[in-house]
Each structure stands twice: as C-alpha cells, then as structure tokens.
Write a structure and sequence with these properties.
heterodimer, A: mainly alpha, 3-stranded antiparallel beta sheet, 11 helices, 3 strands, 7% strand, elongated, B: mainly alpha, Substrate Binding Domain Of Dnak, Chain:A, Domain 2, 14 helices, transport (chain B), phosphatidylinositol-3-phosphate binding (chain B)
Chain lengths: 417, 437
C-alpha cells in the first residue's frame, strides 16, 4: 500500500530519538499547548524538537518558492489562469538550483491530493477554494486573482517548510517538470480514491470501537476551533462592512463643511480646514479597511480551511483504525487462514501505529504554526489600528495648531477672540 | 460651573479637568461676562437642575413634565476660597421659557432674539432616544436653557428688560406681569404667517443679502446635522461589532493553553473599545447642540428681516397713499379727471358740484394729505430707526456667530483628538496581549 512506507520511516525516525537518553534530559517542562495529550517521552521530545527546530528551520531554509505573474490563457475549450512558480534551492535532490515552471489551479489541486494520498494523516495545508459564489465574484476578477495567487504562494511555502512533505516526490515534480500533464496520469488516481471513500463511509457507519483519548481530545479541539475561527472571520468581515459604510457617510460629511465655507467670511478658513481633516481621516479609514482585507481576512480564511483539513485528517485516521479493528475481529472469529490473516492484521496494525504517530507529530507542528500565523495577523491588525488613530490624531492636532495660531494673531489686535 | 466663570476666568481656562464642551461653554460665558452687561456684573445665573413633576394640565389631564431650577446669586459675594452664598432659586418649565421668548420677539422686533433649545429631539441617530423625558435629552436641554438665559443676560438691550429680571426672580407673578404687557395683541398677523408675501418695491439690499445668507445657513446646517447623525450611527456600528471579538476570544481562550491568556485579555480590551463609543458620541451631541443653536438663530434672523420688510412695505404703502391723495387734490383743483373715480363719473353724469361742496372737499383732502405726510414721515423715521438698531444688532450677532462657531469647531477637533487617544490606548494594549499569545 502506498501509505505504508513513509509512516514507518517517520515513526522509525521518532523511535531513534526516543532511544536517545540525553535528549530527554534536555526536554523542557511539559508545556501545555491546549492539546491534552499524555506527556509521553516521544511527544515531549517531539515538542522540544519542533520548538527548537522552528527558528533553525528559518535559518536552514533551503527551498524558496514564489508564485507570481498570473496570466490569462485562452484555448478553444476554456479560459484559465497560469501562474509562474519560481523555485530556488540548494537541496541535493534537485538537479538544478533554479526552476521556473507554469502551473494552473488544477495542477495545485492535483499536487495536494497526491500529498494527501501519500500521507493521509499528515496535515496538508489547504488550497484556496475553487471559486467564490457569494458576492458573485467573477472568476477572473482582479481582486479574486490577487487573493488566489497569494494563497497559492502560501500553500507552496507551507509545503516547503514541512519536514516530510517537502521531500515528497510529487512536490518535486510539481516544482520542476516543464509539463505536468504526463505526470498527472500516473499513480493511483481518481478510482482508488473513490474506493477509499466508499470504504471510509462504510467504516464510519459501522463506527469506531473507541478512539484513543488523545485523538478524542484532538477531535473536540478541532470542532471547537473550527467554530471559533469561523466566528472570528464573520466578525472581521462585519467590521470591514461597517467601516465601508462609515466611510461612505464621511464622504458626504466632509464636503458639507466646504460648502458651508462658501457663504462665510471669517469662518470660511476653519470650515475648509475641518473639511480637509474629515477627508484625510476618510482616507485613513479606507486604508485601514483595506489592510484588514489584505492581512487578517486571508489568514482567518486559511485557518477556516485548515479546520476542515484537520477534520478530514481525523476521519482518515479513524478509518485506518477501523480497518485494523475490522481485520482484527475477523482474525479472532475465523479459524482458517490464520497465518495469512495474522500478517494482514500486523500490517494494518503497523499502518495504524504509524499513522497515529505521524498525526501526533504533525499536530504539534500545526499548532505551533497556527499560533505563529494568527498571532502575527492579530498583532499586525492591532498595529494598524494604532497607526490609524495616530494618523487621525495628527490631522486634528494640526488643525488645532492652525486655529490657535490664528487666534493669537487676532488677540493682538482685539480685546478677546 | 457657570458661577465660577464670572469670578475667575483665568482659573477656568487653565482647568484641564474640564471636558472640551465644558471648556467651550466656559469660553463663551467668559466672553459674555467680559463684554459685561450691567446685569451680569451684578448677578450670576445658573440652570442647575431638572426635575420631573406631574400635575393637571389645561384640559385637566394628568401629565408628566420637567421643571428646571434657575439659580441667581449676587456676583460680588464670592470671595476667594470662601463658600458661595446660597442662591435664590425658582423652578420653570419649558413652556414658560417659550412664553418669555415670544414676549421678547414681539417687544424687540429689531433684535435677533437668542433661540431656545429644541422642543423635540431632531437629527437623532438611532441609539439616541427622541423622548423628551429621556435623562440625556433633559440634561442637554438644561444646558441649552442656561445658555439661553446667559445670551439674554449678556445682550446690551435685552438684559435691561424688566420682564427678564422678573422671569429670573419672581416665580409666581411673572406670568401675570408678562401677559399684562399685552404683547400678544401686538403680534402682527402678517408676520405670523410665514407664507404671507408682501411685495416690497425697493427691498433693502443689505437685508435681502442677510435673508439669503440666513436661508443658506439654515439649509447647510440642517444638512450637516443630518449627515453627522448618520456618521455617528455608522461609527457606533463599527465600535459595537468589536464587542463580538471580546466574546469569541473569551470562548476561544478556553480551548487554548498557550494562546489562552493573550486571547482572553485582548478580548477584554475589545470590550472596552466597544463600550467607549457611548461616551464619545454623547459628547459629540454637545457639538451638535452648538450647531443647532445657530440653526435656530437663523429663524430669529429671518424674523428681523421680515419685520424690516413689513416696515418697508408700510412705508411704501404710506407713500403711495399720499401720492394718490395729492393726485386727487390736483384733479379737484384743475377739474380734469385723470384718475377714474366713481365720484368723477357721477359728477359727469349728474352735473358739477357746487362751489361750497368743492371747497369742503378740498379742505378734507388737505387734512388728509397732511395726515398722510405725517404718516410718511413717521414711517420713514420708523424705517430708519429700525435699520440702524437692527443693523447694529446684526453686526454684533455676526461677530458672536463667527467666534462661537469657530470655538465649536475647535471643540469638535478636541473631541476627535480625545477619541483618537482612546483608540491608541486600547489598541496598544490589545497589541501587547496579542504579542503574548
């Protein structure tokens, strides 16, 4: 089975660390991170390893990918967008140090499904959605393409940072092959996926004997997280909407002071100044809403999709466990073919162990990444808010200064102003 | 607060604890006091409180209304650091203020009479109640009534009015006294009807310009207030939605371990942010009130212009009347009938008048002409006097308006600055919390 080799490698990797007594000594005190998994030596070590490795990853980054240059391609049958994918790398597995290829959205879909098939219980970063129906956004609308391109770029970078996925063969092909279509026909494709899905459905209907505690907790977390992140996204979209409506009113409001100034004498100057202040604050509001759309919304959206990915990963893990349990039951009840069955059961058991370990390891990695990404997005938004208010403050303070200068001029001539 | 401003203007202006609106009010009142009417030099005036009362109205039905406490104090008794003497007080309701103002309008038609705060809440944004008994509305009305009294008290002409003094000091008998002046009979019905147009042949250019300016100002301030209310509404929405962040961050923090604290405390700051808009917009209402005062002032200006129109019209009518009479005399003496009259026709048909008849007619006409000339002189004098006094008040008003509105714009800027500072504070705090995630 295609899923067998890698998980075994991965767990073998972990078993190596497990045997290293020295690392246990250095492992940190159990850092609670919201995942109530038992602090087994391997999980602690994993935590330690990943947290240590994160900064090192950045310094040791040896695969740099950019997605840019969206171009419209028109054929007889269809119209689609091609993106340029540039890769720079020092990895020895790559024949060259630089690659430039062109890929369309379908190609990304292909890559992701191959990654998921190969590593069913690793958390593969999600792709931007097929197309947005709500708001009737046209597929080739500039904003849509811009948003999609950024998300595709994030996707490839997330894969490139993954300790296992970045070494995947399909990933390499995606980055390097001139023509992807010939590669896309190879390997287990649509039909086998179909088969798996049917079996998966059948198994979930029969139900799992019992989910190990750590995965039960994980499931609960995923459901809650999905809920919360969707709400945060909704709130953010609502804020942007309210801000835009506020801006519309401001655009009516400012000019009225200017209009008023036209029928005034002494008052004309301060009135015009106020009109200008309102206009400038309006511009800052516009920029602020734009920033929210560019920085916070895409990140939140990404993690909404991540939540869905996590749910799928958990389902696949459950399915792997169910398959093992089914075969195990068969082994217990059947008297003939014991040896052959035993071998199958052992194989499934190994597969299950491997999948569980893979998921556990990747879980920590994902949580750490989630924390970094969301923290960064929230911090950036808060900064932008501070920036917005500081700019508006400056606008009104300069108005005050100009008026106080005026009044002190007047005061020299008159009694009181 | 008002009491202090009379005695120590410098201290008031230097007082940084005052909100921008109080500062702005104090500046206005300081200006008024420095301008110094005799009344204000000897008396301090406050509208200190508001109270609900119930009683029977004119149709014997139970009604709830608000009364306002007017405090007056002799100006000199406040010693530095000493306790102020107890003020004289009386209660008045809004309708009494209205009665008093109507008296002023009739008695001083050449003066731009300060307006009262609005009868009903207008230009409200959705959260504000339009209910007259709402405490915020009552509070703003209290400020507006105090402002009205101070405007009258600082007016060189109005402050000397006896009814004004009685309004401030004589709770029970003032109403009787003001009705006894008979001012209600003097109200010109032609002025009451806003749509009544009397065609003036030679309208005064300055007053015409003033009328147009007043109309323009009325239009633009109305529009401005309307849009401001919408802006306030929208801003309210933006702030309040952030409250939802507070709730969801709190819930989310419960499922996180490392991120939990940062999220939770950031959520609290979001709640603070969402709550802060209430005070911000309440303060902005004071700015709207300052604009409204001048919106209502335009009605007073228009009144003065209409009065001038009426006087001009009466003058022109008197002149025309005189001219007609003179013409009649000329015809009578020359025998020619240039102006068609029934008399003339009957004379033609039924024969000439006798000499005595003609002479007596002439005498009557001469008398009439003399009266007419006196009437024209009188109207002329009235017109000139009106122009002079009114124009003096208009100049005073213009200067006051320019100063007051400029100060209002400044206080608006101060409010915006305060709002920005609060925003910086909250979001800096939130950023720190996010950094701890």
């Amino acid at each position: 089975m295609s899923g067998q080799t890698v998980p075994v490698d991965y767990s073998g990797h972990m078993l190596d660390l497990d045997e290293d007594e020295d690392l246990e000594v250095f492992s940190k005190a159990p850092v609670a991170d919201g995942n109530p998994m038992p602090n087994s030596p391997s999980s602690m070590v994993n935590q330690f390893r990943l947290e240590e490795d994160e900064p090192q990853d950045v310094n040791a980054k040896d695969l740099f990918i950019t997605v840019d240059n969206p171009e419209s391609h028109i054929t007889a049958i269809e119209t689609f967008i091609m993106y340029r994918v540039l890769t720079k790398t020092t990895r020895s597995e790559f024949d060259s140090s630089e690659y430039e290829v062109h890929r369309r959205y379908q190609d990304f879909l292909w890559l992701r499904s191959r990654l998921e098939e190969t590593h069913p219980t690793l958390i593969v970063h999600p792709l931007p959605e097929k197309f947005v129906m709500k708001g009737m956004v046209e597929r080739f609308n500039d904003d849509f393409i811009h948003t999609r391109r950024k998300a595709l770029h994030r996707f490839l970078n997330k894969i490139s940072e993954h300790p296992i996925l970045s070494y995947n063969q399909h990933f390499k092909v995606f980055l390097t092959a001139e023509e992807l279509t010939s590669h896309r026909k190879q390997g287990p494709g649509f039909l086998s996926r179909m088969g798996e899905t049917v079996r998966a459905v059948a198994n979930t209907v029969r139900g799992l004997k019992s989910r190990p505690e750590e995965f039960a907790a994980m499931q609960e977390y995923v459901d809650d997280f999905s809920n919360k992140i969707c709400t945060v996204d909704k709130v953010t979209q609502r804020i942007i909407k309210e801000e835009r409506e506020y801006l519309d009113e401001l655009k009516q409001y400012g000019p009225m002071y200017g209009q008023w100034a036209e029928s005034e004498g002494n008052l004309a100057e301060p009135l015009k100044a106020v009109a200008s202040c309102v206009e400038r604050c309006g511009k800052e509001t516009e920029e602020h809403a734009h920033h929210l759309s560019e920085v916070l919304v895409p990140t939140l959206h990404e993690y909404i999709l991540c939540a869905e990915t996590l749910k799928a990963v958990m389902r696949r893990r459950d399915h792997i466990q169910a398959e093992f349990e089914a075969k195990n039951e068969a082994l217990a009840s059947r008297k003939s073919e014991q040896e052959a069955l035993q071998e199958e059961v052992d194989g499934l058991s190994d597969r299950m162990e491997g999948s569980n370990e893979a998921l556990k390891g990747d879980w920590f990695r994902w949580k750490a990444g989630m924390r970094t990404d969301l923290k960064s997005a929230f911090v950036s938004s808060a900064e932008k808010n501070v920036d917005y208010y500081e700019k508006c403050l400056a606008v009104w303070e300069s108005f005050l200064l100009s008026q106080r200068a005026e009044s002190s001029d007047q005061q020299d001539g008159e009694d009181v102003s | 607060m008002m009491a202090e401003s009379g005695s120590s203007e410098v201290a008031v202006i230097g007082n940084v604890d005052l909100t921008s609106t109080e500062l702005e009010n104090n500046i206005i009142n300081t200006v008024m006091v420095e301008r110094g009417t005799a009344l204000l030099r000897r008396m301090e005036i406050n509208v200190a409180e508001a109270e609900k009362r119930t009683g029977k109205n004119t149709v014997n039905m139970q009604e709830t209304y608000t009364v306002y406490l007017i405090e007056t104090r002799p100006a000199e008794t406040i010693a530095e650091g000493g306790t102020p003497a107890a003020p004289d007080t009386l209660w008045r309701r809004y309708s009494e203020f209205e009665l008093f103002r109507n008296y002023l309008l009739v008695t001083y038609p050449h003066i731009i009479i300060p307006p009262l705060p609005e009868k009903r809440a207008e230009f409200v944004w959705h959260k504000l109640s339009a209910d007259n008994l709402d405490p915020d509305f009552v509070e703003r009305r209290r400020v507006g009534l105090e402002n009205f009294l101070l405007r009258v008290a600082s007016h060189p002409v109005l402050s000397d009015d006896e009814m004004f003094l009685r309004f401030l000091t004589d709770e029970k008998r003032w109403k009787e006294a003001v009705l006894e002046t008979g001012f209600q009979d003097k109200v010109d019905s032609r002025l009451k009807s806003l749509s009544a147009m009397f065609r003036v042949k030679n309208p005064d250019k300055q007053f015409t310009a003033l009328k147009h300016y007043s109309d323009d100002l009325n239009t633009i301030i109305s529009q401005l207030l309307r849009v401001r209310a919408k802006v306030a509404d929208r801003l309210y929405g933006v702030y309040k939605v952030h409250g939802n962040y507070g709730r969801v961050f709190s819930e989310w923090s419960a499922i996180e371990k490392e991120m939990g604290d940062g999220l939770q405390s950031a959520g609290h700051h979001m709640d603070t942010y969402a709550a802060s808009i209430d005070d911000i917009l309440e303060e902005e209402e004071h700015y709207a009130d300052q604009l409204k005062e001048y919106l209502f002032y335009t009605d007073a200006v228009r009144s003065v212009c209409r009065k001038q129109d009426l006087i001009q019209y009466e003058l022109e009518m008197a002149v025309q009347d005189l001219s007609t009479k003179k013409q009649q005399k000329e015809e009578l003496t020359s025998g020619t009938v240039r102006i068609f009259s029934l008399k003339g026709m009957t004379t033609k048909l039924f024969g000439q008048e006798s000499q005595e008849q003609r002479e007596s007619k002439l005498e009557a006409l001469d008398l009439s002409i003399h009266e007419g000339e006196e009437a024209v002189n009188e109207k002329n004098r009235e017109c000139k006097e009106f122009l002079q006094t009114a124009w003096g008040d208009i100049e005073r008003f213009r200067e006051q308006k320019d100063n007051d509105l400029r100060e209002a714009l400044i206080s608006y800027a101060i409010m915006q600055i305060s709002m920005c500072k609060k925003g910086i504070q909250v979001w800096s705090n939130a950023k720190e919390c996010f950094n701890k995630m």
